Amino acid sequence: MKLRNVLIVVRDIERSRKYYHDLFGLETVLDNDGNMILSEGLVLQDAKIWENFLGKDIIPKNNASELYFEERDIEGFIQKLEELYPDTVYVNRLMTHSWGQRVIRFYDPDGNLIEVGTPME
């Protein structure tokens, strides 16, 4: 068995496509009208489709999962994040864990939690 994709729910799929392209360089692999697959296996699902399928409300900022990215130039990434998306809501600004890894955590425009950290080499 192989994990193929991770799906997140978004309210505006085009805004989210642009967000993940601008910040992480993810490209559109398949656009299937409300279900968009990006490179690296991230899937954007339109919230209306997801709510219809589940029959339940979407709960933004539920803190039950996290997308994790690694970036060597974390200061450069933070500068890009602040320039392109100045209204970003942070969980924590740049911090250093006891094991030496530097990380930042924030929400995407739909309340999906993201962590960007320096590689652990």
UniProtKB/TrEMBL annotation:
Which InterPro entries would you find in this protein's record?
A: Glyas_Bleomycin-R_OHBP_Dase, Glyoxalase-like_dom, VOC_core
Q: Could you tell me which species this protein originates from?
A: Bilifractor porci
Q: What is the lineage of its organism?
A: Bacteria, Bacillati, Bacillota, Clostridia, Lachnospirales
Q: What is this protein called?
A: Glyoxalase
One Pfam annotation, family name?
Answer: Glyoxalase_2
Segments forming domain VOC:
2-119
| Domain of life, source organism | Bacteria
